[in-house]
Specification:
about 350 residues, mainly alpha, 2 domains, about 0% strand
Length: about 350
């Protein structure tokens, strides 16, 4: 495939990651409800900068809109057999509270949406490019189409995130699908590069590597729940220094599981070195885990600085991306050394 397509695929992956970063900044700054509607912001293409640009009853307007969207989402949940969840959602009075206008939060959320818009168009362009130039590559056509559909679903789910006022489980699903989109984009890149590697790995090494990927996914999803608790504390104006003491069980699971992540990846690093597999990515992964440890320590003992929250998420998702990219070495059974 052309170098231009490969570079474009990497650019698309970069912007998908920028969406993750922007979303994390939105959450760490408590800007998730900066725009109460979707896809516009306060029903404007370019959002306001002052509350005087909004009608006096703007809170009532957007609470009513949210109520309508929540009811529609509840009907969808009922169709899929989640009637109890739908009932709780419809009866949750906290969803009918509108925040005061804050231009900083509004524009932070607006920036997040702009990055998402660009990444969406890049994914769409990838699909069109594949249809025109590589339609004989059926697997590439299927993957690029699925990724486009998932991104559209993510956009819709983003509107639900806004409508449900950042309900925890909706945010977790939102993050899960973001990880799936990243994985599919990596698959597209691997197919485009069409590299051939031959390496013989032990079954233990492979199984541990699969376990390390599972642990990374679990850690990111647990981290999503922890950040949700932070969002609530920001909304309730809880003093940042007291956040740790008020965390729920997810935080302690997230903090404890990092030791298992370190042990498994440390063992993989050792096996890679002693068996001369030559996979340098394990050195990078250990380095990324070190950054995760450092930011985690600062969370616990430095009052959870807001600037560290996006870094913590991005480093974790980068580690997962590196692991998923490393799966390409597992496709071959013939013995050879990879440097």
């Amino acid at each position: 495939m052309s170098k231009a397509f490969i570079k474009f695929s990497w650019l698309t992956l970069l912007f998908i990651y920028l969406v993750v970063i922007a979303g994390s900044v939105v959450r760490s700054s408590g800007s998730g409800m900066g725009c109460p509607d979707w896809p516009k912001c306060f029903d404007q293409v370019v959002p306001p900068t002052d509350v005087t640009q909004l009608p006096e009853n703007y809170k009532d307007i957007y609470v009513n809109k949210r109520k309508q969207k929540v009811n529609k989402f509840a009907k969808v949940l009922t169709v899929f057999g989640m009637s109890e969840v739908a009932k709780k959602l419809k009866n949750d009075k906290s969803l009918l509270k509108e925040q005061d206008f804050n231009w900083k939060r509004t524009w932070t959320e607006y920036g997040n949406r702009l990055v998402g818009f660009i990444s969406g168009n890049l994914v769409l362009t990838t699909f069109i490019w594949v249809l025109i130039a590589y339609r004989n590559k059926r697997n590439l056509v299927v993957l690029s189409f699925i990724n486009l559909i998932l991104l559209v679903f993510e956009a819709w789910l983003g509107s639900i995130v806004v409508a449900t006022n950042l309900v925890p489980w909706v945010l977790t699903v939102h993050m899960l699908f973001a990880l799936l989109i990243i994985w599919l984009q990596i698959k597209i890149i691997l197919i485009a590069k069409n590299e051939s590697f031959q390496i013989k790995m032990s079954k233990t090494f492979k199984n541990l590597f699969y376990l390390s990927i599972l642990l990374s996914v679990v850690q990111i999803l647990l981290g999503t729940q922890v950040r949700q608790e932070v969002d609530f504390m920001v909304a309730d104006n809880v003093d940042r220094a007291s956040w740790i003491s008020q965390m729920n069980i997810q935080f302690f699971l997230h903090r404890s599981l990092i030791w298992m992540v370190l042990i498994v990846n440390g063992f993989l690093f050792w096996l890679n070195k002693t068996n001369n597999y030559g996979l340098i990515m394990f050195t990078y992964i250990i380095g990324l885990i070190g950054v995760e440890f450092l930011t985690g320590i600062l969370f616990a003992y430095a009052g959870m600085p807001a600037i560290l929250q996006p870094i913590h998420l991005v480093v974790g998702s980068l580690m997962l991306a590196m692991q998923l990219y490393g799966l390409k070495f597992f496709k071959y059974k013939r013995a050879s050394l990879i440097r």
